[in-house]
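Worked Example 4.2. Consider the chain below.
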Amino acid sequence: MKVATAEEMRTIDSETIINYGIPGVVLMERAGLAVAARVREMVGRGKVVIVSGRGNNGGDGFVVARDLHNDGWKVKVFLAARPEDLKGDALVQYKTAEKFGVEIKPVQDLLSQAPLILAGHSIVVDALLGTGLSKDVTGVLASVIDTVNASGRPVFSVDIPSGISSDTGQIMGRAVKAACTITFGLPKRGHLMHPGAEYSGKLFVEDIGFPKPLLYSEKLNVELIEKKNVYSVIPERRSYSHKGTYGHVLIVAGSRGKTGAAFMAAQACLKAGAGLVTLGVPESLADVFQSRVTEEMTLFLPCKGDGTLSRKASGIILDFLKKTTRLLAIGPGIGVSTETRLIMKDLIKNASSPILIDADGINSLQGERGIFSKAGVPVILTPHPGEMARLLHDNRKKGTARKDLYVKDPDTGMKRSIEQDSINTALSFARDTKTYLVLKCVPAVIATPDVKAFINTTGNPGMATGGTGDVLTGMIAGFLSQTMDPLISCILGVFMHGLAGDIAALEKGMHPLIATDIIENIPGAYSALTEDGRTDLS
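Applying the procedure from the previous section yields the following structure tokens:
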């Protein structure tokens, strides 16, 4: 399913009206009726307070009010505008609601008597502000939002919770905290990015008649990763095959004090389905690795004597890639030094196989984003926001300053944090460097060199623990060894990693969840993903 910005949704709305001949008032009617139907489905019957604004979102609210009132509900609408300020389709629906006998009062009445009014009503419908919000909510509207949030009543938001940015999910001064949100045509970025995802509650995407060519247009470059799509690209396990069929991965990982990162990445790679895995590790730690490896093979690499790699490792790795393996994953636990920086540059410039770079591999490339133009093979990067900042800013001389976790919005020139603007950050970096980027925010975002992005839908807070990134590296590498398709591998890795984490959280709870629990539940993630796209976590 595609995901839209406010501007993209306005274009879809406009083209539907102008090019397909469906009047705006008809779309508003269908939107309001869709909200009313969800209210009936989830509440049954009751008394409802509706807060409406002056725009199309408020017009949707008038349709909801009229339909529920006509069905025998007790409905009160509080209008956050003067009736004479209404225009267009919203004015049409206001007048129709009045003719049906809907009680419409100024919002000041609600603000002055909120406890008395809300005490007698079971739910609140939020139709104050829509997806076009561009500035912080203040004044009367802020007071209305505070009143709605303090009501203790379940809130149904129309299109998006009032006060949430449709494009970033950020709170614009104040925002309604909804129990559920009913949106139209497509989900918006703000529904999926935090804190908007939390404020949206349960999200329903309703079909109100937008033409399918508009909803599936290639102009919409952000998509939601859905279960049914993931199932369709799971690598086939053919009856006539052998371990070589599913690829040989070289994972260069680990250093003194960080050997666990190597083991977790390797085990996750095998569990994801790779045929063979070789661990490339510092030779001074040979005894440590030899005593623990089972299914994995080992390649001992030159080191500096302190348990970290020497630049001499570059040639051995490149030779091994050329003669033996299908791809390289590098970075978990290798440390950051002058030597690792030189190794990473050597590999990017000269590798004959795709490269997946994570953790210290990324940190070793701090401020070196230009190096990726010299790669002759696909490169996948999997940074968290701090690592992303190091790729974007050369701050080696001054440390990782918090200001470097911010990027400039190309449209407004305003600064936003990488996490606040994760989609645009990922898209612009992937485009400029011709890499595949997995930005490990919440939710994770995948971006491609041809400027497409994919938003993940799995995972939970229990996965916020050391080692889960190493597991993700191994899983993406495992899928890449089977498919040799960077995008499919990133989608599978991110989705299945989160799904395994969700299963682990159900079994053990979020607080005690550790990275190896995710590895143990990779088989369960395969089993839970069914052909029709549902997941069975029972």
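The chain has 21 helices and 19 strands. Confidence is low (pLDDT under 50) at residues 397-401. Compare this with Example 4.1 before moving on.
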